[in-house]
TrEMBL record:
Residues in Response regulatory domain copies: 8-130
GO molecular function, one term: sequence-specific DNA binding
SMART domains (UniProt xref): HTH_ARAC (SM00342), REC (SM00448)
Protein name: Response regulator
The entry's keywords: DNA-binding, Phosphoprotein, Transcription, Transcription regulation
HTH araC/xylS-type domain ranges (all copies): 442-539
Modified residues (4-aspartylphosphate): 61
Matches recorded under CDD domains: REC_YesN-like (cd17536)
Superkingdom: Bacteria
Pfam families assigned to the protein according to its UniProt record, in alphabetical order: HTH_18, Response_reg
One Gene Ontology term from the biological process aspect of the record: phosphorelay signal transduction system
Length: 544
């Protein structure tokens, strides 16, 4: 049989028996795959790549000597430059390798194979999924060379900063490089990460271009992508095969919803998207319009999609008018004065009244007003013999803390935390402050134990106890010796074990302990206990 058109597969695993099993399954599957090679570790896989660059499917074990699967995938991805130029990737893992698998997804893997389930019924569907992805890639326009792509990016960025009247000359240069942007129905979009939490990991931010590329390919939508500082991604869309504006809206809404969900699911990252109107105006103005739309998140919230013609909808506006400037300033001073009272309930009550007001002015004016409050807090510290450096992290750098806030709601929340830290520094000793932080941890644990069955998150619990996510996360590690998610998972799994003694069905138990997806519950349970929920119940029944 002619296999010259088959997809080339490289298997990377340090265990020969698993390589043999996988080779046999792939060879006998009847699918258009050919085993191009095998490697026992990541270093040999990279050496193989130098000699045989045409690899279509890369199957990688997550735990290997010399170089792990995650390291190999990262090296391979950096070498290729983008996910659509490299091979489709599948992860091999044991049931306890969840963190490795999660990182593999962040690096572009489309699925994973659990070694203990390496039989035809589990492996073939994953191979079919990989084949489907490879078939989709065949439909994408021919890719530009790296040199041409680099030159294209420079031209596009110059076009978006130069005078609009110079646009035609740039479009001609782009056309000579095979990039033909539409003259009518032009649309631009901007994607911004909502990485607002001080000290939060930005690991997922680098995945925005990769996830965006994958979503564009899956939807068959073509666009020029530009990367800017602060991880801003700009998209200039090629011509759509329709003149219907509502159809375009629906297509873009589906595209960006997929991107937002994937980033949230695999990278725990929220992004805001601004989309321009479809028009026949200069590209620079469309990008500026899309950027303006993203700024709507300050008042309306991040993680949303903002079209120009929806910004006046009720869900994006606040019916309550802004507070008079003099009234707002008076309440601000009253709240600051309340900080001098040793009873924290006094300033908290005043603060709650203050936050019930809508600050006057635009985002820039509001940020300046909050900065003025911080200066006055600094004066209060100095008067009482304290300095910012005495406060716990991240409150030692208050302006940086507020700069990381991307919405008004976050500004209120972080300022309340900051004022609480200032009040504690002014009125309490270090010992009592340390005791209060332990009290915060106990409050958090108590809340988790009472609400483990709800969709609680680190964000929700930190807001409940009145500290930042980063601070609560550090408290768990430093004071309790384990991560927040480990404590939550442990509580849920122990409750699930208790419910195994009842007549509840497994999916009912899953829902009651906070896992709406029974399949996800089963994976987590097996990771923690070593048995699936069904196996665990069978063992209980056998012991009766």
């Amino acid at each position: 049989m002619d296999t010259s058109d088959n997809y080339q597969v490289l298997i990377v695993d340090d265990e020969p028996l698993f390589r043999l099993a996988l080779r046999t399954l792939i060879t006998e599957s009847g699918l258009p795959f050919t085993i191009a090679g095998e490697a026992p570790d990541g270093e040999e896989a990279l050496a193989y790549k130098q000699q045989h660059p045409e690899v279509d499917l890369l199957i990688v074990d997550m735990k290997m000597p010399k170089m792990s699967g995650v390291e190999l995938m990262r090296e391979w991805r950096e070498f290729e430059g983008s996910s659509d130029r490299g091979p489709v990737m599948l992860a091999l893992s044991s049931y306890r390798d969840y963190e490795f698998v999660r990182e593999a997804f962040l690096l572009g893997a489309i699925d994973y194979i659990v070694k203990v389930d390496m039989d035809e019924s589990h492996v073939i569907p994953v191979l079919r999924k990989a084949m489907s992805e490879l078939e989709k890639r065949k439909q994408v326009f021919p890719r530009k060379t790296a040199a041409m792509s680099e030159g294209t990016d420079v031209i596009l960025k110059r076009m978006l900063t130069d005078l609009p009247e110079e646009e035609s000359s740039y479009l001609k240069m782009l056309s000579e490089r095979g990039v033909v942007l539409p003259e009518t129905q032009r649309i631009a979009a901007v994607i911004l990460p909502d990485s607002a939490d001080f000290g939060a990991s930005d690991a997922g931010v680098d995945l925005i271009p990769t996830v965006t590329e994958q979503a564009l390919q899956a939807k068959g939508i073509h666009a020029e992508m530009l990367l800017y500082p602060q991880s801003e991604v700009v998209l200039l869309f090629h011509a759509f095969k329709t003149n219907s504006y509502m159809f375009l809206r629906n297509q873009l809404n589906e595209l960006f919803t997929v991107i937002q969900r994937r980033l949230n699911r695999y990278a725990n990252l929220s992004v805001t998207v601004g989309v321009s109107e479809a028009g026949n105006v200069f590209w620079r103005r469309l990008v500026e319009e899309a950027r303006r739309n993203t700024r709507s998140r300050f008042f309306s919230g991040g993680g949303r999609l903002y079209f120009s013609d929806t910004l006046n909808w009720p869900e994006y506006t606040d019916a309550q008018p802004a507070t008079d400037e003099s009234v707002f300033a008076e309440q601000t001073q009253e709240m600051l004065t309340a900080l001098t009272d040793s009873n924290p309930e006094v300033w908290i009550a005043s603060f709650d009244t203050w936050t019930g007001m809508i600050p006057p002015g635009d985002e820039q004016y509001i940020r300046k007003s909050f900065a003025d409050v911080v200066w006055k807090l600094g004066s209060l510290l100095v008067v009482n013999g304290c300095v910012w450096e005495q406060l716990p992290d991240p409150y030692q750098k208050p302006f940086v803390l507020l700069d990381h806030c991307i919405t008004l709601k976050q500004l209120w929340s972080r300022l309340k935390e900051l004022m609480g830290a200032v009040h504690a520094a002014v009125h309490e000793s270090k010992a009592s402050a340390a005791s209060s932080f332990k009290g915060v941890l106990q409050q958090a644990k108590s809340y988790i134990e009472q609400h483990y069955g709800d969709g609680i998150t680190l964000t929700l619990v930190s807001e409940w106890v009145g500290v930042s996510e980063g601070h609560l996360s550090k408290l768990f590690v430093k004071e309790a010796g384990y991560k927040f998610i480990d404590y939550l998972t442990g509580i849920r799994i122990e409750k699930a074990k208790e419910l195994m003694h009842t007549g509840l069905k497994l999916y009912e138990i899953s829902e009651q302990v906070g896992y709406p997806n029974p399949e996800h519950f089963s994976r987590v349970f097996k990771k923690e206990v070593g048995l699936s929920p069904a196996q665990y119940r069978e063992r209980l029944d056998a012991q009766k």
